[in-house]
Each structure stands twice: as structure tokens, then as C-alpha cells.
Amino acid sequence: MTAAPPPRRFRNPVLPGCHPDPSVCRVGDDFYLVTSSFEWFPGLPLFHSRDLVHWRPIGHAMDRPSQLPLDGVRASGGLYAPTLRHHDGRFYLVCTLVDGTSWSGHFVLTATDPAGPWSEPHPLDGAGIDPSLFFDDDGRAWFTATRETGRYEGHTEIYLREFDPSALTLTGGEHVIWDGAVKGAIWSEGSHLYKIGGRYHLLTAEGGTAHDHAVMMARADHVTGPYEGDPRNPVLTHRHLGLGHPIVGTGHADLVETPGGEWWMVLLAMRPHHDGRCVLGRETFLTPVRWEDGWPVAGPVEPSHPSPSLPEHRWPAEPACDHFDAPDLGPSWNVLRTPRERWWSLTERPGHLRLRARPVSLAANPSFVGRRQSHPAFAAYTALDLAGEHASAGLALVQNDAFHVLLLSTGRELRLVVRERGVASVLAEVPAECHRVRLGVEAHGRWYQARYSLEPGRWEPLGAPVDGDLLSSQVAGGFTGVYVGVYATGDGGHADFDWFEYSPLG
């Protein structure tokens, strides 16, 4: 007899790099997922899967400047914790814009195709963050969100209101349905409602979105409560495993059922490089769920799990090198805040990405096009031609405006610049009297090594490796991971980037 093949396994995270606060929904045999995007544009990246493991990007829900006023938004402000749901042939996406300068608050978007186009945002009443929608089987729909109470630092409550899907408004009175599962609970948030086995189940996050993060469950016989907590709460956490565990900060989850009746949980977590510090940000993980006594049992979240009992469905691999020969930037690229002018071009010099050098800092809408760092070890390279006496351009590793690393060509020299707590320091400098240069960075955990090449095939290090701890959210603050990409700055001139290559190492 021939032995049965071992079961397929998948590796976590299923969406590496800064993809926090995942929300998932199923439509037939297809799964769709959205994550937070904060101050990055376009906003709210959307993904499609048929096996919950392999995800392909299908666009962004907010890809038009008219939808998304990120002007002046602080680092780690912007778009918080979206929820994606589908009902009667229509997709609904609710989210919160935090610290917007022209408007802020909850809103809802709609689309008939998750790949877009999505509507303009419709504002929704209410304070707080982390909105969610629930469509009941009696035809009614409900909105939940979290808000601070002021009773003590970090105390929040989950409130409920009815949602009118046709008018896209909230109606009726408020019902406060939850304020935490444990005594002294902080940051009870990220709520989602489900009806399972005839009962209403409320899934929440708790403990803050760092190492003490946790997933809690409560249930009720009526949607407005009262809700009783799962006696085994938290239903998922890694906070008891310590800072040295390879996966920490598990929380902010959403549940989905497969066509075959399996239950799975998508959630955020982090992969620290040492001492609990992480440059990748909060990533999207997947873990199985089973039900016991009417309560979910989940996790722990492992680097590898047996795959869902779904046909494996891989998508074509994205090329490692972008030659900038498409008419538009691909979905992996982002810019900081809403661009109000077109400072980049893929057509002025075909086969190149042209960035106009402008005297705009990384605290605004700079000439920076970046993608998420998605691996603890990676190499990124580019080749550029620089034009303009007062222009500089090259590679940038960006955590936020006060913490970043720049590898720049001025046309006269190459400089390795680190900005930490808002103070810039030149770590290394070499003469380079040329306008054509190749630049690269190689990362291994916390260490980033800058490299350059003035002639093909000959690469040299620029300075010593940079300690990437300064790019971790534990040092730099905020909720995002590192972005790596191409950058231009100055008063006039431009840089033409011939290609950009990103490859994982090991």
C-alpha cells in the first residue's frame, strides 16, 4: 500500500509586513480581506483568496484623493481598523478616519465588486474607533464601535446601534453591550458580532495592541444583550509566553466559516527580532478555531499549521523586480498621505519611475514611493539617474518622519543618513561624481547594511550596519512597520529610477 501523503501545511503570517487589524468575509467559495493602512495612500488594501492561505492584492478601497483626506495627518493617524462585510450582493466597508484635518470619524463605503470601484465615504455618527457591521437573519443590521469612557486610563466600552443599509445611516438608540472581560480591562476594542447556533457572539480585542494583546468572547440571547463572557477568556493570547516567543501580540481577530463548516480566525500578531522589538509591524496571521460548549477554542498561533480543508489555490507569483513599464504603480506601492499633485510619472521616461525632487519633508506628502518590508531578512536594490544641481535621491527606510534611514546620491557624493527622534546624522559619506548609481540595502533581523555600485557588478558597503531598533515601533512609537522604497528631495530636478528589486533572504 502507498502511504497517504502528509497533510498540507501553511506558514504564518499569511500576509507578511504591516497588515494589521484584518477583517475577513466569505462570498461563496471566495474570501476577501481588508487591513488598516493609517497615513498611507491609497488606503485600505483589499485581498482575495480561495483557500485562506494564499492571498492576492486586488486594489484599495480608497484610491482616489476625493475619498481620503490624509493631508496633515500625524504618523500612525489616518485609517483605523476597517471591517468588511457582504450582504444581498453588496459589499460594505466601515472604518474610522483618525485625526483628519478636514473631517474625521466613522464612515461606510459600498461596492458591488470588492476590487472596486468603491463609493465615496458616507459619514456615520458616533465617537470612537474600530467600527463593525453585523447583518442579522431577521433583516436588521447593526453597527458596533468602541469609545473611551474616562473612568480610568484605557477603559473603553463597546456600543451598538442599528444600521440602515439603504440609507447608510445609524438609527435608533445606543446600547452599551460590553466594557471588557477581565477586571481593570483596558482597550476593549475591535468588536465583531456573529450569530452562531442561534446566539449572538461578540468577539473583541483587549489589553492594548502590543504584547498584552488578547482575544475575548462573549455571547447573548439577544443582540442588545446582556452579554456573558466566555469563562475561558481570553480565548487567544500569547502574552503569557514572554517577549522571547517568536510570535507575540496576538489579537484583533475576525472569524470566518468555510463552505465545509470549518472555522478559522484571522488576527494580527508580531514577529520580534529581539527583546520584543519588531520592525515589520503587525502582520496578518491565520489560526484554526473549534467550538466546545458553544464557545470558540483558538490557537496558539504557530509559525506553521495544517492547512484548511480547502483546495489549494496559489496565485501567480509577483515578480521580484519592478521595471516600471506598467501604466500605473502596482498595488504593493504606497505614498505618504494624500497626493494633491502628481509628483511622480511612469510616462515621461518610459520604463522608469520619475520622482520630482521637492522640498517636502517626510512629515508631509514627500516624493517617496514605498512598499512594506515583509521579511526579517531581505535585499532591496535600485538604479537611478539624477538630474538637478540641488536634488538628492535614493533609497529610504521609513518608520515615520522622526525615525528613518536614507541612502542618498547628491550627484557629488553618497550619504547614509539616519534620523532618530527628529535629529539627522550622517553616518557615512563617499565621493561619487556621477549621476548614474546603483543603491541597495540588505537586512538581517535588526541590522541594515547600505550598499552602492558605481560600475556594474561591483558592490561596496557604505558605512557599518545600522541598528534597526530605531525603526521598531517599540522605539519609534506608532502602529506601523517599516516601508522601503525610492525617494527624491531638493529644490528642483528629478530622479529616474530604472527598476526596483525586493527579494527575501533565507
TrEMBL record:
Ligase as UniProt keyword: no
* Gene3D superfamilies, per database record: 2.60.120.200, Glycosyl hydrolase domain, family 43
Which Pfam family is one of this chain's hits? GH43_C2
State the active site.
Answer: D21, E189
Q: Which PANTHER family match?
A: BETA-XYLOSIDASE, BETA-XYLOSIDASE-RELATED
Q: Name one GO molecular function term.
A: alpha-L-arabinofuranosidase activity
Q: What is this protein called?
A: Alpha-N-arabinofuranosidase
Organism in which the protein naturally occurs: Actinomadura viridis
InterPro entries with a match to the protein in the record = ConA-like_dom_sf, GH43_C2, Glyco_hydro_43, Glyco_hydro_beta-prop_sf, Glycosyl_Hydrlase_43
Protein family per UniProt:
Belongs to the glycosyl hydrolase 43 family.
Q: What is its EC number?
A: 3.2.1.55
Q: Which GO terms describe its biological process?
A: carbohydrate metabolic process
Report keywords, A-Z: Glycosidase, Hydrolase
Marked site positions, Important for catalytic activity, responsible for pKa modulation of the active site Glu and correct orientation of both the proton donor and substrate: D130
Cite the Beta-xylosidase C-terminal Concanavalin A-like domain residue spans from the record. 321-503
